[in-house]
Amino acid sequence: MKFPWTDRLNSLNLSFVVGVICLSVFCVTVFQLYKAHEGYFYDCAHLSGDTPDYQTIAVNLGNGYGYAAGFAPGTTAADYKFAIYPHERKSKNVIEIMDLYNKGLEYDFTRCPGYPVFLCLVYKLFGIHPNIAQYLQVAMIGFAISLLPWFGWRYWGKIGILSGILASYLANNYLCFEPNRILSESLIDLVLAMWAVVFVIWDKRPTHFMTAIIGLVTGIILAVKGSNNLILVFFLALMFIRMRASKNFFTHAGIYMVTSVMLLLPWGLYTLKTSGHFYLSSSQFEEVLFYGNNELALSTGAFSAWEGEPGTTYYQLKDSSLSTIEKYFCFLSRNKDRIPELLAMKFDAAFKPPYNFIAMSMLAYYILYFIFRRGRAPIFPLIYFFAILATSLIFYGCTRFSTPFVLFMTLPATYMPFYLFMLFSKHKA
Predict the structure, then answer these.
(1) Kind of pairing between the strands at 68-69 and 106-107
(2) Bridge-partner residues for 83, per DSSP?
(3) What are 231-263's pLDDT values in tens digits?
(4) CB within 8 A of 417, min separation 6: which ones?
(5) In 108-256, where do the E strands start and end?
(6) Could you give the count of Cα atoms lying within 13 Å of 165 in the half-sphere of its Cβ?
(7) What is the pLDDT of residues 39-84, one digit of tens each?
(8) CB atoms within 10 A of CB 317
(9) Is the peptide bond preceding residue 340 cis, with omega within 30 degrees of 0?
(10) pTM beyond 0.90
């Protein structure tokens, strides 16, 4: 595919040029993110959402209390760098959290270990300063976005660089989830970028060694967030499709699974020792399954609290001996006529504009690619799409969870017009 301006790069070392472009994208992204949130990088954590658990677990872990949420004996909210503003003091949510945490420490395995361990390391190095973690989160997002031109170059050459620059613009303006909050999304951006880099290398040379490396990185991403779990499943599916004609699949799959679990095994043994239950990721499966599949969620597809609602299936079955899965299927059987509506609502909740436009543009590119088979295609954005789509449809849709995945979908989405032009030009010729 030829464009007039591409000839100017022929005499240059493209590796150097791509490196300079990626560094420039990193600097621009970090600058814009900092300016967009300037004045909001507070040296405190807020008592809302998932933040209180992440913050208290990180501080308690660093102080030798283990993986526990809540206030240690003799401590207060100030010791954990929580800020309670005057208008929040009578907030029902804040009062409930404070009452719970003042009861003391409790092991909390609903949170995957990756992000609290990251916070713990930051606090051990720099003291309990949430703003330091926030600045690092800006850098992590910047690093993930800065790799988009490199990905484009590896698969599509010079035009791929341009696609990567356009993708980085989209990601920088629409897909950066508030780095000034103590939440795991920035770390997810980083580990998904790491996994994608290893995948690009594995994609070119799927050796046993590279399969082991991508397995180790998979273990890392599974330790960060439960929404990443299905990446393992879809990567195994890709591996099977590519290697089914040979005997290599079972060898590679075995290496991949062993190295993936290797990093998670110490965590699983720790949860078994402290709680009596073995968790490779987190204990949140039942909670998120019920919150996304109940009568209240039928009209939203999003997180819906069902406790205290007598009309819900789970409230009626709360004292029954049925397993989690059996209760889930009871809900589905009672509402089988509305399952298509629920799935559509979940998709809408996960892929709100412009996420839906990016996802549809990406899918258009892959459909064209699989029909015409021209050039090479990066498959990792497709793996990310199916992973977060399946997670959203099984549990519930949330743009906060899908944002890190959609960030990488911008690459094939921005390349799609160039691919169309290439197909049209060759057909016309």
Answers:
(1) antiparallel
(2) 46
(3) 999 999 999 999 987 888 999 999 999 999 999
(4) none
(5) none
(6) 13
(7) 899 999 999 889 999 999 999 999 999 999 999 999 999 999 998 8
(8) 14
(9) no
(10) yes
